[in-house]
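User: Could you check the structure of this?
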Amino acid sequence: MSELKNDRFLRALLKEPVDVTPVWMMRQAGRYLPEYKATRARAGSFMDLCMNPELACEVTMQPLERYPLDAAILFSDILTVPDAMGLELRFAEGEGPIFDRPVRSEADVKRLPVTDPHAELQYVMDAVSTIRKELDGRVPLIGFAGSPWTLATYMVEGGTSKEYAYVKGMLFDRPDLMHQLLDTTARSVTAYLNAQIDAGAQAIQIFDTWGGMLTPRDYNEFSLRYMQQIVDGLKRESEGRKVPVILFTKGGGQWLEAMAETGADALGLDWTTDLDEARRRVGDRVALQGNMDPTVLYASPERIRQEVATILESYGEGSGHVFNLGHGIHQHVDPEHAGAFIEAVHELSTKYHPSLT
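Assistant: Sure, the predicted structure tokens are below.
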């Protein structure tokens, strides 16, 4: 594997000195880019795009051709794991993901296998190794998966939901069944992420999109507990260097202390938590990633620059901050505004890293 030419993302996650604050964007390869839309049309469908390693590599690289980003993230989807468990994922136009075989009964839960990432998900590993070869050491590659609770919400609901009636019904009525489902999913995710690391992923992010809709008690029991299980089971070193792990719970700002105890290297923040407050609360235990409101990118480049300056000042001096949006970039954002955002982060952050500038 090629030597990394830009490792500031990995260094910041480990709170090592950097010259500028590194930046990447959740969903940076996606629908806001016209070149992505062209590749997606060529692929035929979203899942066909995910399952074609060459095209997945192509769209992973597209934002790096436009912007001086400090990391690439594997182009895939969190729902590849439940799809590999036999739930038959499809994407309906205007409806989002749908599972034709949702998990609703005890028999459904017992039928679920722990996936073999080198069987049903080998196309993801092939994409990781193809992307690493194409990157040629330019920036690190992030691998990822959904948290067990987030995957379970889709698996039980059969798709997206506003009320979470089925999944919360199972949680309250049959917590034993929910724990069984979450354990099987956690073991599948652990194997999946370790296979990504073996294939070349240099950092890992766990997306807990729906943890924030749980009570504090239920968050600890049904979401954080299983992310902890994954963190405990991950390979933390590859190619002679540490593989940092980022936990991101959307709406999880009230639980940062508990998240910091998992042994993860960094916590992702959405825009509802101030960075300075988060830094005070977690101290030196973890790095922080985030946390600009994605809708700021609809504003003028001048306003975007002001917001970047405010967030950098909020974190303050020193390493341990990876700049990102508080959630994924929206599909209707002007690509030029994304470029202004990334440029502002690099330009305005030098003064916060005096030891290397």
